[in-house]
Amino acid sequence: MGATMRMAVREDIAKHEATPLEDRYDLESTYQVLQEGAQKWPSNTAVTFQLKGKPTDKAYDWTYAELLEVSTRAANLFRSLGADETNSVALVLPNLPETVAAMFAAQTSGIVNPINPLLEASQISAILRDSDAKIVVTLKAFPKTEIAQTVAEALKSAPGVTHVIEIDMRKYLAPPLSWLIPLIRPKVAADHGKTVLNWEEALTGQPGDALNFEIPPGGRDRVAAYFHTGGTTGDPKLATHKIGGMVFIGHIVKEGVLNEGDVILCALPLFHCFGAYVMGLTCPMNGGRLVLMTPAGFRGEGVIDNFWKLVERYKVNFFMSVPTALAALNQRKIDADVSSLNFTVCGSAPLPVELFKQFEEKTGIKILEGYGQTEATVVCSVNPPGGERKIGSVGFPLPYTRMKLLHIDDDGVCTGEAAVDEIAEICITGPHVFPGYKDIPRDKVFVKGPDGGEWLRSGDLGRVDPDGYFWITGRAKDLIIRGGHNIDPGMIEEAIMLHPKVAFVGVIGQPDSYAGELPCAYVELNEGESLDPAEIVEFAKEHVPERAAQPVYAEVMGELPKTAVGKIFKPDLRRSAICRVFTDALKEAGVEADVTCEKDSKKGQIAVIKPTAGATEDQVAAVLNSFAVAWKMG
Question: Residue 54's pLDDT is what?
Answer without folding.
Answer: 94
